[in-house]
Amino acid sequence: MILKKLILSMLAVVLMIGAEKGWADTDPPKPSPMTWEVVPHATGCNSISMTATTASDPSGVQYYFDCTSGGGHDSGWQDEPVYEDTGLEELTQYSYRVRARDKSKNLNETDWSTTQSAVTEDCTAPTPDPMTWEVLPYATGSTSISMTATTASDPSGVRYYFECTCCGGHDSGWQDQPAYTDTGLSPGTQYTYRVKTRDKSVNLNETSWSPPASAVTDS
After folding, report:
1. Is the whole model's pTM more than 0.85, yes or no?
2. Residue 41: domain span
């Protein structure tokens, strides 16, 4: 009986020393390699968010998000599986990977996840801004007026909107072409127009209106 107690006491001491030295935990958190719950995705013009799979380990877990390309920022070791990288460049691709480690003295690390990429949003209107005219409105008959906007540029693509501000003409609606002809007008009547553009990004960034310009239909 005394020998049994002695053995148990020695075993307890060994386990305590082992715990202090980190012998008790030599395995990394799971899963390893690390995986994504939500891959990196743009949350604005200057930010990208991502979520790692919630890892498990008896000693607790920390996460490290590494920006591998694009010039973004690493997270440093953190307790949360969610990370948002901010202060990024607009309309730029950034790539990330993530790993986890436990909180034991051994700081056992998982292998890296796969690398995933995202592009920040386009938040800049097309150029020129304000919009300008390439060809001012001019009569093409007694019931029609034509006009052409300056061809605008934007990495996300461009659409044009011609608005008749006076006197009873028709707006174009959003269209891909920079030229517009308003028809079904009255003879010998003055009509006034302006034009703006927007890009085809999710933000639909718009320019300011061009200066107004007028034309009179033929009599």
Report:
1. no
2. 26-119
